[in-house]
Specification:
The protein has 444 residues and is α+β, with helices and mostly antiparallel strands. It has three domains: 128 residues, Methyltransferase, Cobalt-precorrin-4 Transmethylase, Domain 2, CATH 3.30.950; 145 residues, Heat Shock Protein 90 (2-Layer Sandwich); 58 residues, Arc Repressor Mutant, subunit A, CATH 1.10.10. The chain has 14 helices and 19 strands. A six-stranded mixed β-sheet has the order 10-9-13-14-16-15, with helices on one face. The longest helix is centred in the middle third of the chain and has 15 residues. The two termini are 47 Å apart.
């Protein structure tokens, strides 16, 4: 690190990723532990809380190394001395230890703003669950081989063979198939095995039920229909989708003289969201996945917040796949119910926008993750399919050109001009620029 860079960091002050320490003390150990557990960070030793330079002990780097080694497990930061305002500052760079929980003097810490906070026993357990140190799906349960649905297992293997060329013989005994799928631990069935293939999964995991409701109006007050779904994970996904289909409209419209039918919500996006909710939910929680349909929106909620490495914003761009229940996720991957590359939420967004609907909302609420699909604004009812597709593009990009419209909607120049003029007349876009630099800007 150069001294100019160091000066900028000191001038900016302490933050979620920066801590000042006037001298080497046990407080350094707390900060090292907190950064390792929460996010990568930098500790500046020889700098007071108000940013003033302090005298640095000659053996400061050795003492810091000893403190870092004293964390359990040990932390190995990068330590360097950098001159600033004529005085040495010890710059300690701590990496984030993913999947590891560190403690210092038997206490685990996490970084919250500019403070190192000790974790309560409940938080330690939750942290370990999020980090994958404690998992539900690989724990052994009371289910026995006699509780398994052998027909479901055989059907699963045949589908996986067809979809992913799974190299398992469907004729093998059920227990051998589960061994190959790593669904047994020490000769006992795992919870993942019960959730995927038990005849009555809810005998072993009652919270795996899915609650579906269609409400009258826009509030959860009056039920039009309500069902509690039971069955294995695959059945839950399929039956939750059927419930949605029974309660959303299928409209017909004429596009280029051809009659086309279209659901009011994009089925691919809904199914992806249902699969994510049931696959990635926190099975330690006693809550159920909930599917709620209102007059103006459709909501899917699952217990379990995002893992620490992910944020709501990260869901909207390429991100790593961090499954909470990897055994279940792997099984669903084998039959192409999910992909494992962190693209599911992006596909949900793209499919929804392409359907002409507002971008779905992802919210962390009530200890879980909620996906909200909203109906199209009223003005979209007057747009044709091409214009709705363009509107989906505009929601993300704000502007569109005639050339992009032609490529996006696979239409001719005359059609594009007519559609864009109509959208301009309706006040949805405004025409700006001139000649070849003409573009259309979203107004709503």
């Amino acid at each position: 690190m150069h001294n100019n860079e160091l000066s900028e960091i000191i001038h900016a002050g302490e933050s979620q990723a920066v801590e000042f320490k006037a001298e080497v003390s046990p407080e350094v150990g707390k900060s090292i532990c907190a950064f390792a557990n929460t996010n990568a960070g930098t500790i500046l030793v020889g700098v007071s809380d108000d940013g003033r330079m302090k005298e640095l002990a000659k053996d400061a780097d050795e003492r810091v190394a000893q403190i870092a080694h004293g964390c359990k497990p040990s932390v190995y930061p990068r330590i360097e001395k950098v001159m600033c305002e004529g005085k040495p500052v010890l710059v300690i760079s701590i990496p984030h230890s993913k999947g590891v929980l560190h403690s210092y003097k038997s206490i685990a810490y996490r970084r919250v703003g500019t403070t190192d906070m000790p974790l309560s026993p409940e938080e330690v357990i939750a942290f370990a669950q999020h980090a994958g140190l404690i998992r539900f799906d690989n724990k052994s349960c009371d289910a026995q081989p006699a509780d398994l649905d052998e027909h479901a297992i055989g059907e699963f293997v045949r589908r996986a063979l067809n979809e992913r060329r799974l190299e398992i013989d469907p004729a093998l005994p059920a227990v051998e198939i589960l061994d190959k799928l790593e669904l047994r631990q020490e000769d006992r069935l795992t919870y993942a095995a019960a959730l995927l293939f038990a005849k009555e999964p809810q005998r072993f995991v009652l919270q795996s039920e899915v609650r579906c409701a269609r409400f009258k109006g826009t509030e959860a007050l009056v039920f039009i229909d309500m069902k509690v779904l039971r069955g294995n994970v695959i059945e839950l996904i399929d039956n939750a989708e059927k419930f949605v289909l029974n309660h959303i409209r299928l409209a017909a419209e004429v596009v280029d003289f051809l009659r086309e039918e279209k659901w009011e919500y994009p089925l691919d996006a809904i199914r992806e969201a249902l699969t994510n909710a049931i696959c990635h939910r926190d099975y330690f929680s006693t809550a159920n996945v909930q599917v709620s349909i209102y007059d103006d929106r459709l909501e899917i909620w699952n217990p379990g917040a995002l893992p620490p490495e992910l944020t709501i914003d990260a869901l909207k761009r390429p991100h790593n796949s961090i499954p909470r229940n990897p055994l279940i996720a792997n099984a669903l991957f084998l039959i192409k119910y999910i992909e494992r590359w962190g693209t599911g939420t992006e596909r949900i967004i793209k499919a929804t926008l392409a359907h002409g609907l507002p971008e779905p909302e992802f919210l962390q609420r009530d200890g879980g993750l909620k996906v909200v699909f909203k109906k199209a604004e009223a003005f979209l009812a007057g747009l044709n399919e091409r214009q709705r597709k363009a509107w989906g593009y505009l929601r993300t990009n704000n502007t569109i050109t005639q050339a992009i419209y032609i490529e996006l909607c696979d239409c001719g120049v005359a059609t594009a001009k007519r559609d864009l003029k109509d959208m301009t007349d309706k006040g949805l876009v405004i025409k700006e620029g001139s000649a070849r630099k003409t573009f259309y800007k979203r107004m709503k």
